[in-house]
């Protein structure tokens, strides 16, 4: 604690001081140019500051800034949370408000600048500063001298290094220290464009296969002549680089761990005996203190003259301060300085730095109304506009430079005289821009910098925001301290002797490689090509797993996934196999199958490296969240032993995750040095536990699956027994395949309102994202919350239709609410995504619009939490929460729920939300972790019952499905007892037909043919035919009629190679049918020669799928009889072989889903027929098919026939279609014409 005496204090104007503590400082004028300054006599480490108002008055400060300095000049504002910090002050004159600094500062001088004060009084202040003494040895480097530290031994070989120092400089370039070895190792720390660059190489080889050079850049604006602290900690290839409390972790390139340096390490520059390529690097110019190299105090050794500096330059032990006086401009500032009027030479020069692409730099009027000069920064270029009033061409424009809004110091020199002007940027005379346009110059009296005062209230728009120094007018350096004291010129809202520029991109808040750009007040992240989105590129644009893609309705394919979401791991491309109930995720590598090793090899070991399409960390993220993983491995051998005996040293092993060696093989497990045959006891030679260990001269093989996922993936296979004559081996390693996603279905059910789960404190200081699913029937409840002293974060269901995201980072509570048009307590799954970062906060529920709240440009940005994280909330939630992820980490709700009263692991009722994905009649089945689709009663396959099951039929081949089981007598079949049988294939469901549905898809290029034939115990039948003309015909015969009914659908040729889908529906009232295999009607045989050639798929009769029963072995397979060889085909989804018709000319094209229905009344039966021409043509195959079905007895009943087709089909040249559209007596026509001529 410092006791402040009056002699230590200085201010802009009078202050009152009383030794007893009464009174305080109160300036004569209360405006924004007042300050109170404290001089501690020497440098102190300051940790806190406290303020009071003036004693017994209405005078107190409500907000202030703190500046600090070593010299009483070149002030630096205190920064916190990436901003120039404004401290909250007092609310009355008596109470003390203390602020502990987020990070201590070291300075001799402290200046308090009031920003706001009590409106009913004036500025009044009493202060107390807390801290402790500080002392350090300082070395001044003049830009020439170099300080070497020579090793006791000529060589220094280190596994660990710790190098620390502090520096300050006003130069943007310079080598801080450098060391190198003759083997090529080196370490260099230097400034480049006022940023810190560490170059390190622990070793490379001459062949170039090992490249050890590593370069890391950090920091910005380090040429501000303020102290900056550096700590470099190295252990092998792992580096921690700390600059001003900001730590950067990285790992060096190459494979070596030791740093080999020769002779010395030099501070302040490169050694003069260095390599020629290093001569271009500038030496460091500035001050260093507390230099420590691996425990050696370099500054102390130098001060005690134990080190010998180079002969060039001067090394001193006090810091030399520069004589520059910077001036800081905001967007309402201007600086007016006088010039020498009526001169015929106009000359200005200055240095500036800014982040803004536009702004006014200098403005001055010529004398005698000759015009004016305006110098701007315009889109990163410096532009000069000379307005001349005496000539017709009244404006001269020149510009130079580019990208000058990069925050670096840039020098501008502009000179104009009669008929000549020149603009030079950064002293580059070669690129200076000149003009010889007609020009008359006579300088004016005033020069405005940063803005122009038009009147007492107004300034020019596009004022400059940034810093300037070395301002020259008419070749004279402007005395800015005289300006500050009011002795020269005038100014408004500028700060002299301070440059308060901030690099908002350091540290970079743009995550995952996002590019940061900035203006003076804000920064922006460009996320293009990163795989992430959002204000700070925090959110992955990809799903977390293949499981997530499946539940978006995706099919098997390659997809990008991001296993840790917003975490550090990047996205990777995998193959998602969704053909099974469980989803398989596959990651491939580059090792070819059956890779040969050995064969007269002179090497005792052969190492096969597997390079995957993902990093080991990415694959580990997949295996960790998977339910099961496997990787196939195979060893084919000829006189090449594999594992030896369980007690012996193995000849071959594989390397898995974490670079661990494993001595078991596929089909075995960890700790068991055996192959699969050794476990199953069926090896070729029973004395061994691997086939290859028998050492036969014939080829043998040991194969199997590696399924201990904690060891996967295989990264190397090392083969040992290949150096004997005749020894050969072949290695195959399959891709890594993982099944399921435990994180996606990780859920907990909260069954009491007082129950909750607790986890460790959420770490989301500057960036936080939270996502989860919930379902509930309650109208409100807290999903989760985490508290700090005053900070907090909370997500809750506020009402049945509102979700709230609220938090406080120190600027006051913020709440974002999403209101849903539908109730959210509908016991359906709903997804919540919440995010907070330094730029904004957002909340989204399901697919509702994203609600966004911008963060304040100044204020606190760090979320500081201390309590445990409560899931379910201390105020209670009733329902389920699933897949809770916070900053890319999934919380294991199920595991915690197992030991928490009132909470159960898992959650039922997934089918209520996801049952809609089970298509084509598939049934949703509840599971502990999710759901599955039961496709057994459909003609489809796959996880969502959307995969067609089809087959090729060749000539002479047919398939028959018997409704009754083999061996069932007809007497039993027709008995009532049989109808109640427990046999699922012969129950009343199959035989008692209240509703019949028949559907299938076909494609063919041959006609005529029979597609389907269904017969009954009587002579009734139904057949679907393709006539010789290619038209489709439905033919059926019912009891009591002599001739069958024929319905022709001849709008187009169906034998065109494209797939067509047919659906036939019959409704009947309270009917029980007795069915058997009947004989095929003789008239149908005419269409069965030479037979059906084509493709059939997704054939279904009610709940019977004959093709699927034949191709997918089930209990129903015993009902199937096949003539010939049945070959499965995806003919329902083949690529086009002929171009489809355009929508304009296709009479079958569905226009916006509008369908016309045409009805025909028939006696005895109701049929509804739907025909759709597919746009996907199939490869033409030659097949023959006769499908024999048993159909129930059909009673006579009034029926209707429908054909659904697009508008425009009305003009088709179909006789039947014309009759159906126009002839109301079409029923009688069918009855009178029961025979048809077949062409």
From TrEMBL:
UniProt GO BP: cell adhesion; central nervous system development
Pfam families recorded: F5_F8_type_C (PF00754), Laminin_G_2 (PF02210)
Domain EGF-like: residue ranges: 501-538, 908-946
Membrane topology, record value: Single-pass type I membrane protein
Superkingdom: Eukaryota
Disulfide-bonded cysteines: 880-907
Domain Laminin G: 138-319, 324-499, 746-907, 969-1131
InterPro entries recorded: ConA-like_dom_sf, EGF, FA58C, Fibrinogen-like_C, Fibrinogen_a/b/g_C_dom, Galactose-bd-like_sf, Laminin_G, Neurexin-like
Domain (F5/8 type C): residue spans on this chain: 1-132
Keyword annotations: Cell adhesion, Cell junction, Disulfide bond, EGF-like domain, Glycoprotein, Membrane, Phosphoprotein, Repeat, Signal, Transmembrane, Transmembrane helix
Boundaries of every Fibrinogen C-terminal domain copy: 537-589
GO CC, any one term: paranodal junction
Transmembrane segments: 1165-1191
Main subcellular location: other
Localization terms from the record: Cell junction, Paranodal septate junction; Membrane
Family from the record: Belongs to the neurexin family.
Protein name: Contactin associated protein 2
Gene: CNTNAP2
